[in-house]
Amino acid sequence: MEDFNFGRELRLLTPSHYSRIFNEPARAATPFFTLLAKPNDQAKPRLGLTVAKKRVKKACQRNRIKRLARESFRLNQHTIDNVDIVLMVKSGIDEQSNEELTKQLTKLWRKINERCKPGAPKPPPFKKRPNKSAKSNKQSQ
RNA sequence: GAGUCAGCCAAGAUGAUCGCUGCCUGCAACGAAAAUGCGCAGGGGGAGGAAAGUCCGGGCUCCACAGGGCAGGGUGCCAGCUAACGGCUGGGGGGCGUGAGCCUACGACAAGUGCAGCAGAGAGGAGACCGCCAAUCUUCGGAUUGGUAAGGGUGAAAGGGUGCGGUAAGAGCGCACCGGGCCACUAGCAAUAGUUGGUUGCAAGGUAAACUCCACCCGGAGCAAGACCAAAUAGGGUUCUAUCAUUUUAAAUAAUGAACGCGUGGCCCACGUGAGAACCGGGUAGGUUGCUUGAGCCAUAGAGCGAUUUAUGGCCUAGACGAAUGAUUAUCACUUUCUUCGGAAAGGACAGAACCCGGCUUAUACGGCUGACUCACUC
């Protein structure tokens, strides 16, 4: 029986952890999430959350989204490879229901596994506008 | 019964499964080992009435500080409560409402300065446009001069109101009543009130969330305050050690040169550079602390109209830090809709602690309780 704990070793704890991932990550996205990831040298995946005040105005909505994300990560942790993940959100997410968000998150975990496979195509360079359209095509499939 | 006013309560309940977190207890397995426990197991805790806005007031911390003043900011009927307040309680004045009640920055424009569109003759210790009256002139239409604030007209506002007397016509010009000012008296701690007494013909209208004046209050910054521990890297200080020669000094030492190490270079020459160790202080990442026992909560009794307060007893009730307090689900309760009356479906707000309190303000679904008022009905 696998355990579904979500202890401190499964989280990103310090700003240095985060900044490592922001540097040339693999990306995946859905209409309301953006996910950045990078393989780590741990035996487990690790999760970090970034819910900007700019995107979600109310504190209790931010809390709700974080809790959903943690819960989904906790239940799916054994299907995810050993990567460090930073989950970001987009505007409008606070109007979505719990069910819908959970569905999207599950899809994301699958997607990020493919992107981080060794030998997967190198992610496109980070901050370039044209790539945005390419990404949205992938979302709609 | 309908409508309304005021105050208060609650913020669905009980399970199941999988988690998070800090507290207590334990350590068989885990890890090289140990531990006051990285970790694991068990136990019992884990968001709010507004946790929000950050609008006031305090505690706490650091900095500054003899005392006083200026500047700046705030408060503004009176009394009380309080750690304090711009809060609350009680009282007064004014306004609104049939009423229960509600609203009210409500000190001083008679210290000075300023402001007031349009209309209107005139907007401030005024003013004659129409009108009224008198005198003079007259072509008998009126004109001129003077008096007049009762009437008309303008305006948000025209320098008390009504009546009588009075007068050429009028006028606080005189009188009565009403209103106002001032001084007493009475009630009240006071604000203030008074069918109270006297006096005054009544003068200088509005605006101070206009400058201003008056009275009172205010040092600054904030838990990212502050205190402690402290890697790596770079840099600072002190001490010690460091080859040889010459010169210097009583000596320590200092200077110069060479040698040596390192870098450039295949090597020499050449050029550049100076080492090592120990300790000290500052201090970054990171960690610990501040951090939850407090103007605390509950009950009972006493004081007070009340805010509040006193005594006794009991209780400990979140302390996170890339930031926990959750997710899924079952049953019951609540509301709405549909109904074949068996049930079925949908819904549950506002919103998330971050050093802590006291207030204010704003947002709130479904509900519950208490008191009061108005109208209708019954007796």
From TrEMBL:
It catalyses: Endonucleolytic cleavage of RNA, removing 5'-extranucleotides from tRNA precursor. Keywords: Endonuclease, Hydrolase, Nuclease, RNA-binding, tRNA processing. It comes from the Bacteria. Its EC number is 3.1.26.5. Consists of a catalytic RNA component (M1 or rnpB) and a protein subunit. Belongs to the RnpA family. NCBIfam families: rnpA. RNaseP catalyzes the removal of the 5'-leader sequence from pre-tRNA to produce the mature 5'-terminus. It can also cleave other RNA substrates such as 4.5S RNA. The protein component plays an auxiliary but essential role in vivo by binding to the 5'-leader sequence and broadening the substrate specificity of the ribozyme. This is Ribonuclease P protein component. It comes from Pseudoalteromonas rhizosphaerae. The lineage of its organism: Bacteria, Pseudomonadati, Pseudomonadota, Gammaproteobacteria, Alteromonadales.
